[in-house]
Amino acid sequence: MTLHFPNMAEPAGRTLGDEEVAALERVIRSGMLNSVWGAEARALEREVAELYGSRHAIACASGTAALHLSVVAAAPDPGDEIITTPITDFGTVAPILAQNAVPVFADVDPSDGNLDPDAVAALIGPRTRAIMVVHLFGAPAKVGELRRLADRHGLALIEDCAQAWLTELPDGRYAGTAGHVGTLSLQQWKHITCGDGGLALTDDDELARRMRLFADKGWDRAAGRSHESLGLNYRMTELQAAVARAQLAKLPEVVASRRRTAGQLIEGLRGLGLGDAETEPKTGGPKMGGLQACELEAGGVRIGLPRPDGHAWWLFPLVLPEGDAPGLAAHLSAAGIPARAGYLKEPLNQAPLWDAPVYGSSRYPLEDYRPAPCPEAERLVATTLLTIDWNEHYTSEHVKVITEAVAGYLGRP
Known about the structure:
The protein is an alpha/beta fold. Helices cover 34% and strands 15% of the residues.
């Protein structure tokens, strides 16, 4: 019988239970489901701010909404540029276009898909307003270098932590606290969920003010029925917030569980090379998440293993430098393991939307715009990147099945 791998679309793959049901009942019986007058969203903000050591946490309707708030905080003028990664969900880029700014795609580290600070530095120009970095799959990006780069050029640094709840930076802080704004997602497939929902983190009072106003139609509630600035309705509901609070209490164990089994898989994959000089794990290999990784070579196949330091394991990524990812992904999938090559159909710099109108029939602000090539990102998506779905309910048995399947592909006993 094939071992079932629980996923986040089913009860067996989530931590939803009696606590969330009780939270929903509490809100429904209160009669107040709107967060303007309710208490749940404000409590969630306080709890997340305390967890992250941030001065402000602003709750909103989705992770994409949180990113839109972060772009509003950066305050680009129409036509200004925001540098970001091509390996990400479109929710990272849509807020840039929504503010009439231009996304500029920088290439990535070929070992883990996170933004390459040198590639970012080469693209900074007179219209650059911000850098938006994604902590891909839960691995810490090189935000220390990016923050120094942003400060040197007077830019805002935005951290997209949708996949990176409790990801730890080398200095011990959480991802989302090194930039001017960090964003979190509570969407169905994230570490914790309320279906959809997001939060924006900042220590800057003025940035927090801008984001709160924009999330509530530019309405300064203290001033009466008066709209101070342009804004949308990005409010989180009390129902979302109540579920998110119950989930937040479970977050540390969710991440700890994912880290335990991911560590077991790393050791299992390293073990495939033990006793064979040709396949000993190599030090001095690629950089993964800004930290040193190991590289396994067996049966003529090289596999870059992610470094666990700080990783929150939204997915478990492998990099096959010789372009074997599609073959290994097919082999794992045939064994019932949820694995796929590439993560995206194409990196965002190659998405078809760049040939389409943006507003009505207008292509503003993208007239004469063509994203530059990002060869490392394009190669990762096409041939070298493989991701395995990860879940807090995986056990040592799941790890064993994955390890044995990889061993079979490598021709190892």
